[in-house]
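Example complex used in Figure S2.
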Amino acid sequence: SEHHQTEQGEASSLRTPIVAVLGHVDHGKTSLLDQIRGSAVSEGEAGAITQHIGSTAVPLDVISGIAGDLVDPDDFDLPGLLFIDTPGHHSFSTLRSRGGALADIAILVVDVNDGFQPQTHEAVDILKRTSTPFVVAANKIDTVPGWNPEEGRPSKLAIEAQSDRVQSDLNENLYEIIGQLSDEDFSADMYWRVQNFQSNIGVVPVSAETGEGIPDLLTVLMGLSQRYMKEEMAIDVDGPAAGTVLEVTDTQGFGATIDAVIYDGTIREDDQIVVGGQAGPIVTDVRALLQPRPLSEIRSDDEFEKVDEVVAAQGVKVAAPDLDDAMAGAPVRVVRDRPIEEVVAEVKAELEDIQVSTEEE
Ligand code: GDP
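Predicted assembly (361 residues):
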């Protein structure tokens, strides 16, 4: 990532855009995430992708390796993509807070044979309400009768290599989905015909089974972020962290801990933090920041390793006293050199906002 000093003397940097996967049950959200992780692992040497708590970071050079000719790393200065590991729009909806988005962009997964289903409509409603830019992954293209699979190939090329019959069957299903998006007031088209991804939704045919279309999907996500989200991704890396609680968990040796996604600034081992709880803001001190220990290094039953600091955007497990009452979807804020009342008021305002949006549903 590129670092430079701003006029105010703050170290600013471009963070990784956060990507969420939404869609109807069984349409392939989990498989798609697995396929993206799998492609990334086989692309680079071990360590190329980083498994954080609740999320997976895929760096730009790995994306460009998977995407081949589609992505020239010199065209990008965003450091890669961070995928939230828990798919589904219910988590997306409850985890979306006011001050910061849980996700900057989303993948709406639609089974190409099934088209829009009730939870697809629900997901679209949430994406509309939160103004989250998204792409549609038209999944399971390998199930079209007669499909000739070629592992990991860009789907535009994979489709051109199929028989006329297969192409026309697939197209019929794809245009059905484009029509359903249009019924939802979105102008959509096959991604290779979309010029402006801000006003048009790109539909990317994929197979989470064969990996076909993964290069195209990553290219579109990267392009979309680079073009339209660069300004939002500029953060003060050294500033006090802001994040969202994904889950409240019990961690052996630490008691109640929170799994959070940090989307701004840095959280350090000795920081004071304010976390949203059932009964209001919780003020506490970080006892440990934990990340999953790489599988190769597990010798004892220590599943996690301590880290000194975590810079946005990343997932992290935070151990601190008094977290039993913390809430999924609530904000996490590092206090650092700000007046504590100010940070508490910020968290309180966000909590009220979450309550309101939950009641609306
Ligand atoms: P989720 O509920 O949306 O997370 O869906 P899953 O990822 O669990 O997938 C549901 C089922 O569809 C599983 O049996 C997957 O193996 C299967 N599946 C998912 N994607 C594909 C695909 O692209 N092609 C084929 N043939 N099967 C798929």
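Residues 23, 25-31, 87, 139-140, 142-143, 207-209 surround guanosine-5'-diphosphate (CB under 6 Å). The mean pLDDT is 88.
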